[in-house]
Write a structure and sequence with these properties.
The chain has 122 residues and is mainly beta. Helices cover 0% and strands 47% of the residues. The strands form two sheets. Strands 2, 4, 5, 6, 9, 10 and 11 form a seven-stranded mixed beta sheet that branches. Strands 1-3-8-7 form a four-stranded antiparallel beta sheet, with no helix packed on it.
Length: 122
């Protein structure tokens, strides 16, 4: 099982980025998926989750109304659309698979992407 993250970059405050997570080695349709982020020196922070059917999403309060998580089973991709970015959103963002016997709110992951860096700065 592998997750490969892409789409990060440098953007000005108020800008947008779309992160992508390419899935391989397992059936995406069977798993809830999440995005997490990490800043050097701090613990990893949960950002958003989407259930295996794609009809239920959850967001951390600090991204609600600005970020949207989605999935495309046919393309085996998970996305994070990030709008109205703020400097405090600067972090390494990773896609993560929720274990089959767990749920999104447990914040436990058994597969994680390598991360893609998002820098928000003027």
């Amino acid at each position: 099982a592998q997750l490969v993250d892409s789409g990060g970059g440098m953007v000005q405050p108020g800008g947008s980025l779309r992160l992508s997570c390419a899935v391989s080695g397992f059936n995406l349709w069977a798993y809830d998926m999440s995005w997490v982020r990490q800043v050097p020196g701090k613990d990893s922070e949960w950002v958003a989750s989407i259930n295996f059917r794609g009809d239920e999403t959850h967001y951390a309060d600090f991204v609600k109304g600005r970020f949207t998580i989605s999935r495309d089973e046919a393309k085996k991709m998970v996305y994070l659309q990030m709008n109205n970015l703020k400097p405090e959103d600067t972090a390494l963002y990773s896609c993560a698979r929720v274990p089959y016997d767990s749920t999104w709110y447990a914040e436990k992951y058994d597969v994680r992407g390598q991360g893609t860096q998002d820098t928000v700065s003027s």
